[in-house]
Specification:
The protein contains five helices and seven strands; from the N terminus they run E-H-H-H-E-E-E-H-E-H-E-E. With 167 residues, it is an alpha+beta fold. It has a four-stranded antiparallel beta sheet, with helices on both faces. The chain has a three-stranded antiparallel beta sheet with strand order 5-7-6, covered by helices on one side. Strand 6 and strand 7 form a beta hairpin. 32% of the residues are buried. The model has no long low-confidence stretch (mean pLDDT 91).
Length: 167
């Protein structure tokens, strides 16, 4: 596990890195529910402008050794709070997603917190479980990253979940 994962508010200078990260076809396949066209810079910029303008959304840049490696977010969906994360695929398998999500969850006081993950995205499911999430249901929806309907797990970090430490 990488112990030097840091979160900070998203800066304008981070957006080109986020855009570059989402150009990876494998990452889009795994995320499944990402943008319809990852190469559409206008849609990307509009998406991030909406996110950054909404005070209900907590977004953080994930930094390791001074390098931007991704982002994490907590956002409202109806009456619930959901989380998501995106880590540069070149950095997968190093514990960055787990450390970043754990840090975000320490910052966001709302409980329960929810997440969704494509059923075949075992790595992301493992990240969520390491952070205390449990599967509470199943769903399916159209996934632009795959151009098809995808089955997904619905997870929850319960209100009585223990305080997260470093994993």
């Amino acid at each position: 596990m990488t112990s030097d994962v840091r979160l900070r508010p998203v800066r304008d200078a981070d957006l080109p890195e986020f855009y570059a990260h989402q150009q990876d076809p494998q990452a889009n396949w795994m995320a499944a529910f990402g943008p319809a066209d990852p190469a559409d810079r206008v849609a990307f910029d509009a998406h991030w402008a909406r996110i950054r303008a909404d005070p209900r959304i907590v977004t953080r840049t994930v930094v390791v050794d001074g390098e931007v490696v991704g982002h994490v977010a907590a956002f409202p969906v109806d009456e619930r709070t959901e989380v998501s994360y995106w880590i540069d695929p070149r950095r997968w398998g190093r514990g960055h997603a787990t450390a970043a999500l754990a840090a975000l969850l320490r910052e966001v006081p709302q409980r329960p917190v929810h997440a969704r993950v494509a059923k075949d995205n075992r790595a992301s499911l493992a990240v969520l479980r390491k952070c205390g999430f449990v599967v509470v249901g199943e769903d399916s929806g159209y996934a632009p990253g795959r151009g098809a309907e995808v089955e997904e797990w619905v997870l929850e970090l319960p209100a009585d979940a223990a305080e997260l430490g470093d994993h």
